[in-house]
Design a protein that fits this description.
This is FAD-linked oxidoreductase. By secondary structure, this protein is an alpha+beta fold. Helix content is about 30%, strand content about 25%. The protein folds into 3 domains: about 55 residues, Uridine Diphospho-n-acetylenolpyruvylglucosamine Reductase, domain 2 (2-Layer Sandwich); about 110 residues, Uridine Diphospho-n-acetylenolpyruvylglucosamine Reductase, domain 3, CATH 3.30.465.10; about 200 residues, 3-Layer(aba) Sandwich (Vanillyl-alcohol Oxidase, Chain A, domain 3), CATH 3.40.462. Helix 1 packs across helix 7. The radius of gyration is 22 Å and the shape is globular.
Length: about 475
Amino acid sequence: MISRRTALLAGAGGVAVVGTGAVLAATHEKPEPPSPPATDAKGHLLWRNWSGIQHAYPALRLAPKDEGELAAALKAAPDPIRVVGAGHSFTALAATNGTLVSLDQMSGIVGWDGDEAIVRAGTRLGALGPALAAKGRAMANLPDINKQSLGGALGTGTHGTGKTLKAIHGDVTALTLLTPDGKLIDCSADKRPEVFNAARVSVGALGIVTQAQLKTTANRRLRRRVWLEPYEEALSKAEQRWNAHRNFEFYAVPFTGLVANITHDETDDPAEARGPDSDTAFLDALKTLRNLLGFSTSLRKAAAKALLGGTKPETAVDEGWKLLSTERPVRFNEMEFHIPHQNQLAALTAVVKAIEKHRPDVFFPIEVRRIAPDDAWLSPFQGEPRGSVAIHAYYKDDYAFLFELIQPILISHGGRPHWGKLHSLAGEQLAGLYPHWNDFLKVRAELDPRGRMLTPYMRGLLGL
């Protein structure tokens, strides 16, 4: 998607010629955020999440090979107990100074029930794709990033995009849950349905999901198409595109007047290579435009349209697991809310206006997706289709504006927060968004009466 001149701008060493030919110097790159000490006063090693804003010093780290080993270890493990996958959540869901559990050694497909795969919870989504493809099967959908573990993806309601496609937990037909006291519970819609309804999206509050049974689809090739378009035109066609395409999402790019559209549709065409990553160069170009022209929205938009407006569409054909997710080497912090679908574009419009009025430092695109409904109690998509609006801040930049400026807009449009993304809602605020909130708390109290899975953050989140 990125033209040669855009890439040259991104790598121009902070200098560009704009308009009449005057040379403007870019602002200096901000320093790396300070890192916490590598150990605490007790010698416990530092744990940090992917973006670096959450950290803890677990007293004990476990990496069990199977459920029996995990159950035995939990008996004497210090509380609170939390499970970590890729550490890609931006909230403090995994942070604990008690016991941090990694399920990386509990991974892989361990069986099949017809076309449903039985998968260990430590399996990374990026590894699950080729493992399913070897059997001619695939996950129905994938999120934008595939580094997460299956257990982490289920716990936070991780999703992809597509009007008829559910979040990952929506394709779960059975689960195995290990409670903090070492009891294994197999559950499904017919067996312990109250546990099943609570455990499909549980923010790790019930115990540890050790495996899940997933519906799969035939492993089909998809045609991927990416193209830029003026913002107003893209918004006017968005609903039509969600109706027309298997997967559709778009990225609204503040201070450019442009949108990057992405579609995926099934095809029998021969494979066509995706080509090298262009997203990083695109972000570098947007950051350079911010640094050079952040003082003037009109100049910044004019320069962006001149540099990016003529880029050619990008196409690729391959198996879905190779195309639906993307590498994200540039770190960021993120807030994402799931809006009733009829309010989604109005919420996006308000967010873009607020950013362009108040936050000239923002340069990351805003991701906009659509997700089908499901019936898990704490699913953000419980009961109705929802549209997601995800706002990103470069990891070196201030992100407090997400809470102060953006969150009130998303709440006012009926949004529910993504469990793994930044938000400040808790207790009664969340209870008002989920009809089965108290049902979930009842199951939690039954399965973990001593609160061994509850950090201070988790207690606040659940209002306990």
